[in-house]
Specification:
One of its GO terms (molecular function) is DNA binding. It comes from Acetobacter persici. Residues 104-152 form the HTH crp-type domain. This is HTH crp-type domain-containing protein. Helices cover 52% and strands 8% of the residues. α1 (10-27) packs antiparallel against α3 (39-56) and α6 (118-125) crosses α7 (129-141). The relative contact order is 0.13. It has two domains: 12-63; 68-170, Arc Repressor Mutant, subunit A (Orthogonal Bundle). The strands form two sheets. The protein has a two-stranded antiparallel sheet. A two-stranded antiparallel ribbon has the order 2-3. The chain is mainly alpha-helical. The longest helix is centred in the first third of the chain and has 18 residues, at 10-27.
């Protein structure tokens, strides 16, 4: 039986080889040198290495792991599920759980940013967009996610809400970046109470 093979053009192969060489050069940086660099520089190098490795092996996001995968802390994720189940009915626990699952499935690599807009979250959860802020606000109060405001050119106001997963809960991308982000982020509130503050 014939096997379907994805064709790769000569320019694509050349680009992949250049990306692989650049990633290899970055990997040669010594731990001694890296530890003297500012944290932001180490994160930038890690992100660049990860991006180059991905460019060198574009097929790795498919096959066994279509769309890539997200790393989860099993214990902390289970604790969050339990905490969501204990929410009062007015806090819409079913929709909060659905939102949490969607967050885990839609993370940007190396930043932990949630890639769904408010309207997309509303459509997938099955609620009005105005309720998404409350639902995500519940996850934010639990320490599962954090919210930033991103200014959009030509748009008045504080900007659109952008959400990021707490790196103690889940991550999608470089472990080096995850460790750096986790060192600057507190674990979710419930987990601190249950684990005596351990991360």
């Amino acid at each position: 039986m014939a096997q379907i093979v994805r064709l790769t053009t000569k320019p694509q192969r050349s680009g992949q080889e250049e990306a692989a060489q650049a990633a290899e050069q970055l990997s040669l940086l010594s731990e001694e040198l890296l530890k003297h660099l500012p944290g932001e520089a180490r994160i930038a190098i890690s992100r660049a290495t990860h991006a180059l490795q991905k460019a060198a092996r574009p097929d790795t996001t498919e096959g066994l792991w279509p769309g890539g995968f997200t790393m989860l802390s099993r214990m902390q994720t289970a604790t969050i599920w339990d905490a969501i189940r204990e929410l009062p009915s007015d806090d819409r626990p079913n929709q909060v759980r659905h939102a949490f699952d969607l967050v885990l499935l839609n993370l940007r690599q190396d930043t932990g940013e949630v890639l769904l807009t408010r309207d997309q979250l509303a459509e997938r959860i099955g609620c009005a967009p105005k309720h998404v802020s409350t639902i995500m606000g519940t996850l934010e109060k639990m320490g599962v996610i954090r919210r930033e405001r991103r200014k959009i050119e030509g748009m008045q106001g504080r900007g659109v809400a952008v959400y990021f997963i707490n790196p103690h809960v889940a991550w999608n991308g470089s472990l080096d970046v995850r460790k750096a982000q986790a060192a600057e982020t507190r674990p979710p509130m419930q987990l601190e109470l249950l684990q005596g503050g351990a991360s």
